[in-house]
Write a structure and sequence with these properties.
GO terms for molecular function: cyclic-guanylate-specific phosphodiesterase activity. By secondary structure, the protein is an alpha/beta fold. It contains 25 helices and 25 strands. Helix 2 runs parallel beside helix 3, helix 15 packs across helix 16 and helix 17 packs parallel to helix 19.
């Protein structure tokens, strides 16, 4: 699958060409085709705005000649809809609030280009939505004009009724009921146009149409203005007129063959080869499902089903053979599914199924069942027995859905990611956001590992070098693919976050960590270091979850040391300061990890109330071979020890590193030299002292 390339027409208010190039490259690596214009003065900005429409402005707040505020005002004066993201040296809520008050949509620090890319993607999606809405509004107005013209000149009698009163009637409707004036009819209730013997039935149909939105037909006796009667057929359907939800009345003389019309309607919804519903009908019903999902909070799932051997069958048996398998497959599918499931043929060898009241697990179980059953079923072509397998894509339909074509496209996209056929994939929005084919594949592997239970915790000891002995382990999450190969954690977690799995994984790890202390029967003084991702840091319910979970386990609150990465702390500093203070006040232990990765953030040790500080991996890997690295690490350790925090050096991989660390007064060390991550907490701390 090739990632879709999105083109950005970008305005860069950035004085440094080098920094501008860094921003452009970051966006290109994210999957955008960037067409950038660097503007530094009001004249250059005016020229750019006159030339054409741009999509986004990224503005450096430090640029003095043309401020972000002036640039936004100039854009407004041109009547352009160009969102602006400001770039700050350091994050400041006050500065960001000021910028947003004069029109910026968001802000980000210059160092956090990953966050910039995500915010750019979000703003471009919002811009596309706004532009799409503008175009839709214009098209709607043009369509309404054409519809009004068609209604006025239609030979069919058509009227719109709201709360029982006419709000519109065309000329054919006036002629049918022999009214000469529109205004006169608008004062007449729709019920008065129907003979008394048909009124109760009419009321029931009105109730039914408001409850189900399904089109209704019934025969009735009409009453003209002179009180004479006539027989006719009325078709009722929901509609909008002048922004009001109305009921449309379409009336034809009874001489019309209603039964024939119904038959033609049925045939128009049918696939001629398989007798299943066709794609047009399925799309119409999917639109109704979307409306129900939005109006009544109902849930649906779409399954896109295609058999994998189509090309092979087509090559060996020709079109007739492929059609025979398609027909046999449609009959087999019809036998497998319940009546309330809508099954349709939507392509040469593909089918779609709409499952009502369907959450994720139900649709996955259905897909799994179909894959297993069809692989053991024998089909016949010209006396030859063959087997087929399915590739199934699943797409949920909820209150965030709006376009049937997009839902089908997403389901097809999911099925295309089934490697070697005979399986199913669930569509995830994060696939659209994945920056590369590798990210898409990793996302698939992560989801499969979680769903298949190929997820486990491993433990690496953190051992004293100086100071009192403690039983400490770092908890590491390991996921493996179906072949047993470990997935690289540095690639797993960014993809998991993008897929919305970060919070779920954090909570699972906390629960499993506590469970492992109990099931492995280790000393209850053991402390496990567990990472909290950026998603959990901003979760308002995380403290409540931690407190309830640890209390339920019966273990001491210090059993888990919650580890916060320096970069996440910087990006959410205000929230992390409050979170650390709250957790410490309740008796929980904390660790700041990756300390020193950003040299200008040494003051974090002052701002965060933590028990442990772990130095950044990249800063320690060469300290035994490079004197400058050793000096820098010593500075970091001084910052830690001067504030009475316990220091931890990770990535101790060889004896030479241990020798270099000894004189630096490090409290704890961690690394392969001591022990590789293990499924059990079995390190002998008593014999491992130094």
């Amino acid at each position: 699958m090739t990632a879709k390339i999105k083109t950005i027409h970008l305005l860069l208010l950035e004085p440094s060409s080098n920094q501008a190039e860094v921003i452009i490259n970051s966006l290109r690596n994210r999957g955008f085709a960037v067409r950038a214009t660097q503007v530094l003065t009001t004249e250059e900005l005016s020229t750019a705005l006159e030339k054409g429409v741009s999509d986004l402005l990224i503005a450096d707040l430090e640029h003095q000649e043309l401020s972000a505020k002036q640039a936004i005002e100039q854009i407004d004066s041109f009547g352009r809809d160009i969102p602006c993201i400001v770039m700050m040296n350091e994050h400041s809520d006050d500065i960001l609030i000021e910028c947003m008050r004069y029109g910026a949509v968001d802000g980000v620090t210059k160092a956090n280009l990953d966050l910039l890319c995500l915010k750019v993607e979000r703003e471009l999606a919002s811009l596309e939505t706004r532009r799409g809405k503008t175009q839709s509004d214009l098209q709607l107005k043009a369509t309404e004009k054409r519809c009004t013209l068609l209604l006025d000149n239609s030979q069919d009698a058509i009227a719109y009724v709201h709360d029982g009163m006419h709000v519109y009637a065309n000329n054919a409707y006036l002629e049918l009921f022999e009214y000469s004036d529109h205004d006169e009819l608008l004062c007449v209730p729709a019920l008065d146009m129907i003979a008394k013997e048909s009124q109760d039935e009419f009321r029931q149909y009105l109730k039914s149409i408001s409850a189900t939105s399904d089109q209704q037909n019934f025969s009735f006796t009409g009453t003209k203005s002179d009180l004479s009667h006539f027989e006719a057929i009325m078709t009722l359907s929901t509609a909008n007129y002048d922004d009001e939800v109305c009921t449309q009345l379409l009336i034809r003389p009874a001489a019309d063959n209603a039964e024939l019309e119904e038959k033609l309607k049925e045939l128009s919804a049918q696939d001629t080869l398989t007798d299943l519903y066709n794609k047009n009908y399925f799309t119409d019903q999917l639109q109704h499902a979307i409306e129900s999902a939005n109006d009544q909070a109902e849930t649906y799932s779409v399954l896109y089903i295609t058999y994998d051997q189509h090309e092979q069958i087509l090559g060996e048996y020709g079109i007739a053979g492929a059609d025979q398998i398609t027909v046999d497959c449609s009959k087999w599918l019809s036998e497998q599914v319940k009546e309330e499931f809508l099954l349709a043929r939507i392509g040469d060898h593909s089918f779609s199924m709409l499952l009502p009241n369907s959450a994720g697990i139900k649709s996955r179980d259905m897909a799994q069942e179909l894959c297993e059953k069809v692989s053991s079923h024998l089909f016949d072509i010209e006396g030859h027995t063959i087997k087929i397998t399915f590739s199934i894509g699943i797409c949920p339909v909820g209150d965030s859905s709006s376009d049937p074509a997009q839902i089908l496209s997403d389901a097809i996209s999911a099925s295309a990611r089934v490697d070697n056929g005979n399986g199913f994939k669930v569509f995830n929005k994060a696939v659209r956001a994945a920056g590369s084919e590798q990210d898409v594949q990793m996302l698939d592997k992560v989801q499969e590992a979680i769903e298949s239970g190929r997820i486990q915790l491993m433990y690496q000891p953190i051992v004293k070098l100086h100071g009192e002995e403690k039983l400490l382990y770092q908890v590491l999450l390991r996921l493996s693919d179906e072949k047993g190969n470990m997935l690289e954690s540095s690639k797993v977690f960014p993809v998991a976050k993008a897929a919305g799995l970060g919070e779920k994984l954090d909570r699972w790890i906390i629960k499993q960590s506590l469970k492992s202390i109990l099931t492995q029967k280790v000393d209850k003084k053991t402390q496990l270091f567990v990472n909290l991702s950026s998603v959990s840091l901003i979760d308002k319910n995380i403290v409540n979850f931690i407190e309830k979970t640890i209390t339920a386990s019966g273990l001491p609150k210090e059993s888990i040391v919650f580890q916060i990465e320096e970069g996440d702390a910087v990006n959410h500093l205000k929230r992390v300061i409050a979170l650390c203070a709250e957790l410490r006040s309740k008796g929980f232990a904390l660790c700041l990890s990756n300390f020193g990765a950003q040299p200008d953030q040494k003051t974090l040790v002052d701002q965060l109330d933590v028990n442990f500080v772990k130095v950044a991996d990249e800063k320690v890997k060469s300290l035994h071979t490079d004197s400058e690295s050793a000096e820098f690490v010593q500075e970091l350790l001084n910052e830690i020890h001067n504030r009475d925090k316990h220091s931890i050096i990770p990535k101790v991989e060889e004896a030479a590193m241990l020798a270099a660390l000894w004189p630096l007064n490090v409290k704890y060390i961690q690394g392969y030299y001591l022990q590789r991550p293990s499924l059990k907490m079995d390190y002998d701390f008593a014999s491992g002292g130094f």
